[in-house]
Design a protein that fits this description.
With 388 residues, the protein is α/β, with parallel strands linked by helices. The chain has 3 domains: 106 residues, no CATH class; 163 residues, 3-Layer(aba) Sandwich (Rossmann fold); 44 residues, no CATH class. Helix content is 41%, strand content 23%. The longest helix has 34 residues. The radius of gyration is 30 Å and the shape is elongated.
Length: 388
Amino acid sequence: MFNDFLTGNEFFEGGIILMLVGAVIAGIRYIPQFVWHIVQRLWTVSVTTRDQTLVSWLSYWLAESKYAKDCQWLDATTIHLSDKLNAVLRPGFGIHTFKHEGVRFWLEHLLEDQGIAGKISVINIRTIGRNLVPLRKIIDDAVDAANRQCIGKNVIYVNDRWGNWGVVRLLERRSGESLFLSRGLFEEILDDATTFFGGVEWYRDRGLPYRRGHLLFGPAGNGKSTIIQVLATELKLPIYFLTLSHPEMTDYDLAMALGRLPEKCLLVIEDFEKVKLEKTEMTMGGLLNVVDGPLASEGRLLVFTANKIENIDDYFLRPGRIDRQWVIDIPDVEAIEACFNCFGVDGSVDKTAFLQEAKAMKWSMAQVQKELHLKHGPRPVPRPHLRK
């Protein structure tokens, strides 16, 4: 009886047929995707990067390529080259195909949702065959192009909320002649840093953690930041400025940031006495762990700056966290005179009177330079008469 109902029910038979047809159509829709997946697995090789620095380098390399000049689907972005912000037109988000040294590549540039970490740029590059050399060549070419931009520059990195580092500036290297400090002060700092970076075997032979901490403290405007730039110039090292003010940054994000540091670099935390961890998701224990605990990176020189050392907790000042301290105070007469001579001030300004005034008023070096700039800075450029 039930069989009779099934065979004689047109609505039931029609429903079955409709369901089968729908299933076939749905399956057909996925056939090309399935075939393409098989082709990718068997006959292509690819590389994917989520490293934001490498994504930037690949984007810049592609922006300078022949393909970018013919591409009609572009994305406008900016990049710091030297001390200027430059506009760059690079191939936009989506899939692009291009040839490099006779090899065909497919590049997909997309935004990937990282959940609470937000969205990040991802680049996937694919080519036909099983040979990884062409892919490696593209990565190497992009890195080489980035390195050429960095030649003769101080490379400045800053971390984001998720522990990634990105290049924010390429600055001209600062000469030691731009520093006006007490005699021998910078040389002492440089000697300590040079000894540290050259002493890796000494640390390892004694089973000591290969890291060192400096503290530069004193009134604002006396050269703490300039010392760091000149130090990076002399040692030819990148500068990584660690920002601890992201409200949602966690101990894990902080550990990830320090875990991504290169073996040799300057890691800088400026205005350390103003750091307020209670305004973030980080803890004091998490910060101590990455400074000199189990999660601390090695091979880096950690440089703290502060205006008032008395506002820094004592447990941060112990050896192992901060090994050397230097006061960068208001300049002495010798430093002020060196700055005066550097500006090449003519006879219209009385040097003795200027030195006495600067010392009596306890000018910072920034104030000294401001006064000298006003007295003997660049002259105004003549401008044509403007119509009213």
